[in-house]
């Protein structure tokens, strides 16, 4: 591989976003640093809410970079008190929605793309279009990342954290070689053959997966498998309200095929009751020959095995989801992007001096300092492009994951980075039941379509 590789443009996204399964923590930081905005006269308190906990940052490049930039900004702004409310991801999503419903959002917070249109319509979040286009780093932004945070021509957030996949197959190379495969199978039929081998040789299943939080089957599986059936134009039409329906036959096929896979015995039987954090431990312990999750899971698995089991670490491989026999689109597809953005409470418009400081913070968290940090330390990319990434200092596993993420695969969208959370609430709940064998794909599709029409299409 060449010593220097150009950073590839990343796909559009969520959740990218980076998800975490840490315990709740509340962290306060104050009385540091000096920036031009602080010198301009503001010396009060800024409220920042996010989910990059200290625990998560130990195995997550995006969160490590996010926290590092916060610390640097604090030191540069001694006249500003930055109060941080830091929650685990699932709790964060619940709490920020509650605060939005009460009209009491923090000054600065992380916005999910799927909330953009409704919160903008309610006047809860600030139009950041001019702020973004006035950024000193705008020329280096990957502007495709803004799509989930737009309503018409207006942009309501600066995409943040790192661009990464929600759907990566992480597998033990040696275990799959024993089953007769030099690399992870490209078809589900071969996965089933391997599963038969594993079951005869002491393993209960081939792939670990956790859908206990309900979102995982959607974000970490269906939005990639669905693209194999529908193609990218279908979901773009869903976003644009231009005619596509969840009841369209290709999407119904994707739902049906997903359900059949999860009922086939290739996954752990408790997939609907354990989380992705639980399931990745099955892989780490050697109970599962493979695991499917997001780039946040990969970071944790790699860091854990590198420290505790170097032999298994050196056997880590990466692959896309196998292609269903009747799917016709994008066999190398994986969903990738930035699922969260830095957003401002609309009320900041009434306090220009505080707003200046918040803008300075947002630029710091998404600009070149962050991009260079995650590129040089983790071989990851963010909103701001980096001219080149020196991969020579990274080991084989890191290099392979970089190639998987940005070079050898093609991007598709993460479903729940768009549309409206009410739609995905129906999808996630009913999909969980469908994977257990209850209901039908047609009925689930009809229910999702109904929620789409009531909460998005007709609004």
Which short descriptors sum up this protein?
four-stranded mixed beta sheet, 459 residues, disordered N terminus, seven-stranded mixed beta sheet, globular
Structural description of this entry:
- This protein is of the alpha+beta class and 459 residues long.
- It contains 19 helices and 18 strands.
- A hairpin with a 2-residue loop joins strand 7 (150-151) and strand 8.
- It is globular, with a radius of gyration of 22 Å.
- Residues 1-39 have low confidence and may be disordered.
**Looking at the structure, what is the overall shape?**
globular
| Rg over CA atoms | 22 Å
Unreliable stretches (pLDDT < 50, length at least 5) are 1-39
How helical, in percent, are the residues? 40-55%
Largest sheet: 7 strands, mixed
**Total number of helices:** 19
Number of DSSP strand runs: 18
Strand content: 5-15%
Report mean pLDDT, rounded to a whole number: 90
The helix/strand class is alpha+beta
The N- and C-terminal alpha carbons lie at a distance of 50 Å
How is this fold's topology laid out?
Layout: E1 4-5, E2 27-28, E3 32-33, H1 36-39, E4 45-50, H2 54-57, H3 61-75, E5 77-86, H4 89-101, E6 108-112, H5 116-121, H6 129-133, E7 150-151, E8 154-155, E9 158-159, E10 164-165, E11 168-172, H7 173-178, H8 188-200, E12 207-208, H9 215-230, H10 232-240, H11 249-262, H12 276-284, E13 290-293, H13 295-308, H14 310-313, E14 316-319, E15 333-337, E16 340-344, H15 352-366, H16 368-378, E17 389-390, H17 396-406, E18 410-412, H18 421-435, H19 441-457
Parallel strand pairs: 4-5, 4-6, 12-13, 15-18
Antiparallel strand pairs: 1-17, 2-5, 3-5, 6-16, 7-8, 9-16, 10-15, 11-13, 11-14
Helix pairs in contact: 3-15, 3-16, 9-11, 9-18, 11-19, 12-13, 18-19
């Amino acid at each position: 591989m060449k010593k220097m590789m150009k950073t590839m443009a990343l796909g559009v996204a969520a959740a990218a976003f980076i998800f975490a399964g840490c315990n709740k923590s509340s962290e306060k930081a104050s009385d540091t640093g000096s920036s031009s905005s602080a010198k301009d006269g503001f010396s009060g308190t800024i409220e920042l809410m996010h989910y990059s906990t200290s625990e998560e940052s130990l195995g997550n490049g995006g969160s490590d970079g996010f926290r590092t930039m916060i610390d640097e900004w604090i030191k540069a702004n001694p006249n500003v008190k930055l109060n941080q409310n830091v929650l685990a991801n699932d709790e964060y999503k619940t709490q920020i929605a509650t605060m939005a419903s009460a009209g009491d959002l923090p000054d600065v917070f992380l916005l999910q793309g799927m909330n953009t249109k409704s919160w903008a319509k309610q006047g809860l979040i600030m139009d950041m279009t001019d702020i973004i286009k006035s950024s000193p780093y705008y020329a280096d932004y990957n502007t495709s990342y803004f799509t989930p945070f737009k309503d018409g021509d207006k942009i309501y957030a600066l995409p943040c954290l790192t661009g990464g996949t929600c759907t990566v197959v992480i597998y033990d190379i040696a275990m799959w070689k024993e089953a007769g495969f030099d690399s992870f199978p490209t078809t589900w039929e071969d996965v089933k053959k391997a599963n038969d081998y594993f079951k005869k040789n002491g393993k209960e299943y081939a792939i670990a997966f956790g859908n206990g939080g309900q979102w995982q089957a959607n974000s970490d599986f269906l939005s990639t498998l669905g693209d194999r059936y529908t193609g990218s134009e279908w979901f773009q039409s869903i976003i644009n309200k231009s005619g596509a329906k969840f009841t369209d036959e290709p999407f119904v096929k994707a739902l049906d095929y997903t359900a059949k896979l999860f009922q086939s015995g290739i996954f752990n039987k408790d997939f609907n009751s354990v989380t992705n954090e639980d399931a990745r431990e099955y892989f780490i312990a050697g109970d599962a020959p493979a695991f499917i999750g997001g780039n946040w899971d990969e970071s944790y698995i790699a860091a854990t095995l590198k420290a505790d089991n170097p032999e298994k670490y050196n056997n880590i491989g990466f692959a896309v989801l196998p292609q269903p026999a009747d799917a016709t689109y994008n066999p190398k597809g994986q969903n990738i992007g930035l699922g969260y953005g830095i957003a401002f409470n609309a009320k900041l418009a009434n306090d220009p001096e505080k707003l200046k400081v918040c803008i300075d913070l947002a630029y710091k968290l998404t600009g070149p300092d962050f991009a260079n940090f995650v590129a040089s330390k983790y071989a990851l990319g963010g909103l701001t492009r980096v001219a080149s990434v020196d991969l020579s200092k990274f080991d084989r596993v890191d290099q392979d994951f970089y190639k998987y993420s940005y070079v050898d695969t093609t991007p598709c969208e993460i479903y729940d980075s768009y549309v409206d959370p009410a739609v995905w609430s129906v999808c996630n709940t009913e999909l969980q039941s469908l994977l257990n064998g209850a209901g039908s794909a047609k009925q689930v599709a009809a229910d999702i379509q109904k929620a789409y029409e009531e909460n998005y299409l007709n609004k």
